[in-house]
Each structure stands twice: as structure tokens, then as C-alpha cells.
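Following up on my earlier message about zinc ion. Here are the inputs again, as you asked, copied directly from the submission form:
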Amino acid sequence: MNVFLFTDVEGLPGISAMEQIDRTGESYSAVRENITDCIIKTADFCLANGAETVYYLDGHAGGGNVYPDRITNAVKIDKHMCAELLAAGKIDCMMEIGNHARAGTVGGFLDHTMNSGTVFAYKIDGVEQSELSLHALVCAAYGVPTVMCCGDVAACVQAKEYIPDIVTAPVKKAFVRNSCECFENAYEIIKAAVKQALGNYKSIKLMECPVANAEVEITYYRTDMCEAAMQKASCDYVRKDARTLVKKLGKITDFSCYSF
Ligand SMILES: [Zn+2]
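Thanks, got it. Here's what our run produced:
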């Protein structure tokens, strides 16, 4: 059994304020420690529960967040390698680490979808998606289930909207968007969730894939943000309104299928 960890930072243990994840800020080195530590510990839990190889993808803001030299119990991969491993049948299940709720979630710590500065909502066939659901759909296209979500309480509750069987590890709770309370026993929670998820990963149902001709709809905060996206777009699309672009999803093969 090989496990793939898709990592983000907002939902990590020990991150409780928006300022902490400012890459130019003083506290960012602590974030790098946090994510590195979380990958090492989670990979250890996976290995103790039957995993042969653990892969991880440093997914926050294009990567460069972890100290890869310190991670000796998991293999670093990028999105391209991930799609290749999925296609080759080398990944058996996926876990989201450090996850956050989709844009527009009450009580979601640092809720956003794809880009916190520009994206108001991202929908597939009218259903709002989260980063977890978008990642899970790529894995599901290869028959690989998303079995665990570690993040804030809202992210964990929301994960079950998409994957009812998913095992969750809530490690913090937000009352307003930009700050939260971290739970002291976060790693006990993650340890138990990994054990439960890997104990019966084959029985955790795949996220349901959209129909072949599904429509993707992205709404930006402002008209100019939509227009900037139109200038960069590399696919056929329709401008539905001032702030919204629509395209056909097509076949899901890798993580690039969502971009315009
Ligand atoms: Zn992030």
C-alpha cells in the first residue's frame, strides 16, 4: 500500500493566525517547521499502519514550504509526478494534510478555493468545489480514494459533503475566518485518524466523478480579475457574466484540468 499526502498549510497543527503564513513575515520559518514536522509524523503513522511508501506533495502556494532534506520517511513529488504515479497504479489512497474549507464557509479558518485573492467560487456542474474535492476527483479518476482529511473543524465537516466515508482529523477550530484555536492533542487525533483510514481504505468510496460533458464555472471577486484571467486563458471558454468564466471540464487526467 502506497499513500499520497497532499499538503497545505492553513489546516496544520499550530497555525492559528493569518499573519503566520505570510511568506515574507518573520513567523514563516515556524510554518516551514510545522509542515515538515507534520509530514514526518503523518508519514510515520502511515508506515506504522501498513504503508510501504509515502509520497507527499508540497501544495501550498506552488510549493517551497517544506525542509525536504529533513524528510527521510516520505518521497517528495510534484503534480506531474503525482499524475504519472496515479496512472501507473502506484498510489493506493490519498490524504489531505493541512486542509481548509472552500471559499465562503462560515467558521472556516482561512477559507478559500485555489486563490484567496481572486476566486469567489469554483463550481462543477453547479456544485461548489473545495481544494479537497478538486484533488479527490483527480485521484478518483484513477480509482484512488481520498481517505483522510486533516484540517480545521469546518474543513473536516465539509470533506464529508464530497466523500461521506472520509475519516477526519480536526486539529483546530475557527470562530472567525482569520484566527482559530489549535487543539493540544492534534497529533493524537491525526494518529487515530490515520489508523482508522488505512485500516479500511479499500472500503472508502471514491468521490463521484462528474459526467463527461460537465461544465466548470469560476467566479472572481471583481470584473478586472475575470478580465485578467481571460487574458491568460489557454482553453476555450465563455464569459457568463462580468466576473464568471465557464468551460467544459473534459476528461480529468491531472491537476491542470481545472485551470482556464
Ligand atoms: Zn494553502
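One observation from looking it over: The CA atoms of residues 53 and 156 lie 25 Å apart. Hope that helps, and feel free to reply on this thread.
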